[in-house]
């Protein structure tokens, strides 16, 4: 038997066990396992794990899963906040434009009013009173 192939002469593949008794332990298996023509070839690649590793690693994996879950939640919240910030920023820009138009309008009214007063002679003002 070729050392790189399994019982059914297929190339064996390197897999990784994630069971609680062998977390992260690598093994060789049939490349066609679970399909028609595949076999049940199995050979550990890594040596057996010590008892301490078997106790600690599953807890670490759970901790990683929880941290990744929290990360996804924070990323979703960040996307929501970014969307809200863009909306508020657009609204702020619209308000700035409204104030600019209002200011220019008032400036125009003030300038026209001032020029009308300058063009009016004293006699006309006395007649109005």
UniProtKB/TrEMBL annotation:
Coiled coil located at which positions?
Answer: 64-91
* Residue ranges of every copy of the GRF-type domain listed in the record: 6-48
Q: Which InterPro entries match?
A: Znf_GRF
Q: Which PROSITE patterns does the record match to this protein?
A: ZF_GRF
Instruction: Identify the keywords attached in UniProt to this record, alphabetized.
Output: Coiled coil, Metal-binding, Zinc, Zinc-finger
Database matches in PANTHER family: ZINC ION-BINDING PROTEIN (PTHR33248)
Q: What is this protein called?
A: GRF-type domain-containing protein
Organism of derivation: Buddleja alternifolia
């Amino acid at each position: 038997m070729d050392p790189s192939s399994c019982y059914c002469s297929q190339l064996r593949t390197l897999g990784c066990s994630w069971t609680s008794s062998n977390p992260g332990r690598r093994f060789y298996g049939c490349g066609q396992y679970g399909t028609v023509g595949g076999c049940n070839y199995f050979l550990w690649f890594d040596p057996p794990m010590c008892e301490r590793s078997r106790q600690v690693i599953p807890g670490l994996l759970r901790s990683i899963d929880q941290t990744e879950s929290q990360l996804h939640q924070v990323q979703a919240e960040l996307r929501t906040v970014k969307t809200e910030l863009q909306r508020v920023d657009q609204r702020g820009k619209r308000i700035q434009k409204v104030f600019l138009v209002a200011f220019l309008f008032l400036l125009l009214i003030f300038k026209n009013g001032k020029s009308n007063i300058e063009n009016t002679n004293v006699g006309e003002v006395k007649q109005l009173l």
